[in-house]
Amino acid sequence: DIQMTQSPSSLSASVGDRVTITCQASQDISNYLNWYQQKPGKAPKLLIYDASNLETGVPSRFSGSGSGTDFTFTISSLQPEDIATYYCQQYDNLPPWTFGQGTKVEIK
Amino acid sequence: QVQLVESGGGVVQPGRSLRLSCAASGFTFSSYGMHWVRQAPGKGLEWVAVIWYDGSNKYYADSVKGRFTISRDNSKNTLYLQMNSLRAEDTAVYYCASEGIKTASAFDIWGQGTMVTVSS
Predict the structure, then answer these.
(1) Given this model, what pLDDT does residue A93 score?
(2) pLDDT at B46
(3) Comparing C-alpha atoms, which of B4, B7, B12 is closest to residue B67?
(4) How big is the A-B interface in CB pairs under 8 Å?
(5) Residue B53 CA from chain centroid, whole number
(6) Chain B contacts of A95, Cβ < 8 Å?
(7) Interface of B with A in 4-63 (CB under 8 A)
(8) Could A100 and B44 be called an inter-chain contact, meaning their C-beta atoms sit closer than 8 Å?
(9) Which of B47, B95, B102 sits opposite A98 (nearest CB)?
(10) pLDDT in tens, A32-73
(11) Residue A90 — very low, low, confident or very high, per pLDDT cuts 50/70/90?
């Protein structure tokens, strides 16, 4: 099974800061990676698909990049409504579909 | 609008069974693969099972293989998860999710989740 390792597990940043989360796959997954946002008490929501494509309706301050084993998720200017946990997910070598352990983003 | 609504969660004793349902609306249910994903309290997301759009293929996480069964009734636009021999570690919020309605190969629509608590 492919393991997904996210870092950091949590971070605290100020409104307006640039926030970066990394996700590393245990083997090459090309660009078969999605990013999800989960707000407290809510279901996850797809933000980025195929590593770098923004889902329709998602603000442009969110972005993703990478291929192979190393991926990055960025919030260019952190907003209060971005407080959530973010997960990467691979869909290359299936099953299983595997998620990273999550990164909790808080406001400083 | 496109919607998934789970039901059937509750408190159940270890070793007992429970069946979850996921009612779909607003899209052609019979055209899309469907997944169950769970989240233990305070933990991350864990994929549980998938069923092909026509029910022809089903796959499970190792942690539930042999105990859980995913199924669907396309005439009723409903997805199911039959959970047998439940264990304390199955305690979680269970989400159903569709794959590829808007975005291929992504879990693009999620239900609100239903809580399953396994406890004596």
Answers:
(1) 84
(2) 98
(3) B12
(4) 62
(5) 14
(6) 47, 50, 59-61
(7) 35, 37, 44-47, 50, 59-62
(8) yes
(9) B47
(10) 999 999 999 999 999 999 999 999 999 999 999 999 999 999
(11) very high
